[in-house]
Amino acid sequence: MAEIKIEKKKPIWPWILLGLIILAVILYFVIADNDDDDDFNEEENTEQVATPMETEEDTETASWEEDNLSGEESVSKYLTHISDQEKMGIDHEYSSQALVYLINALENRSEEANIDTEVEIQELKNDVRDIKEDPQALTHANTINDVGAKIVDLMEKMQEEKFPDISQDVQEVRTALQNIEPSTPTLDQKDAVNSFYKEAGDVVQNMKMS
């Protein structure tokens, strides 16, 4: 009787194990590559995140002396300041501070009267802020003339919109401003400068909503 040879099958588990090892190696490199990409993207995004810079408008607002007062209160503050006229003989801080209080009073009055003066007020604040940074800019009265002209124009705008009865008062402010000689030192014409402040005070006093 012929002998039947039975060939034993070779085990396949070594091949399965080898395949798993190869697959694991491939997955390792794929995952590692993705991690590197994520790290790179994260660094790139981090570099692109810009710290918000303070805008010019924020800086301007922060450095302005807001009074947070009513129109009547801010007018009173201005009038109290200009009543001490002897301060002008000491330094130029008197004039620069008077302009700050006057602009605040005009701003509060315009808000109460619902008059849009945002552009004009901001321009005046910028001008006076420059003066406060360099008080000697008031040595010659041309600076007061320049700012004063804008103040009178603003008063005239407000008067025409909501205060028809004070047109003569506004004209008196303009006349007082014209009496200030631009080329003459401020301290040599204190009376003329104080007259301008006084007439301006009369106007903001009379800008009351009935």
UniProtKB/TrEMBL annotation:
Transmembrane segments annotated in the record for this chain: 12-31
Top-rank taxon of the source lineage equals: Bacteria
Q: Which UniProt keywords apply?
A: Coiled coil, Membrane, Transmembrane, Transmembrane helix
Give the residues annotated as coiled coil.
107-134
Per the record, where are the segments of Acidic residues compositional bias? 54-70
- For the region Disordered, what residue ranges are annotated? 39-71
> What protein name applies here?
Uncharacterized protein
